[in-house]
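Pair request: fold both.
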Amino acid sequence: MANSKLMAFVIVAAMLLMPSSVVAASISISSVSLPATVNQGDTFTTTMSVSGSSVSSVSGTLTLPSGLSCTPTSSQTISLDSSGVGTGSWSCTASVAGDYTNQITAGVSATDSSTGSSVSDSKQSGLRVLSPASLSVTSSIVAGSV
């Protein structure tokens, strides 16, 4: 009987000391914003909005096709506010005209604060880069008789 009371006490104590719930870590890209169209040679800003919970070491990256370049070129740290929302921005240049629809990959990764494992998300985006307009003028003089 004493052993069963001791066992019951140990079980109740273990249950009270056990965390009541484990919150799963999450990170996601809410949006990627950039212009739909730019002209060749233009500079534009790309902004990624992320949301997460129970994470640390949040970083964002852009994977680009040739013809587009952005700085920073490597990943950048994204700080989440108290509500778990943050943004990262890149300054980009369109050096080659073309249709880059769905050719930009925005990625975010973070570390689960409880387990240390990685969590991540990615989203495709893109834009069109137009060739600059050109104008050509030709003139000629016709020789006439006087």
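--- second member of the pair ---
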Amino acid sequence: MLLGKRLLNKLPREAAIKNSFYDILGDKENIPKDKFLTCSIGIASHSFTKDNANNLDILLHYADKAQYIAKNSGKNSVSIYNNS
């Protein structure tokens, strides 16, 4: 089995990934009370083929798409784009 597929099988599902980010980002311990910090995160997964194996631009393109989906859905959002 390919390394990427083994890693994907070991990763938590999308909801668990999102919840992990929300737990970390929701910690307000080090942020002054009069300041607010938000974060929109885009995560991408892509199945590479022989034709595009060396093209990381594709992966970055999908991560960028995911980030804009997160931004458009509100502040403090995580979006996962999976093109496999």
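Observation on the second member. Residues 6 and 24 are 25 Å apart (CA to CA).
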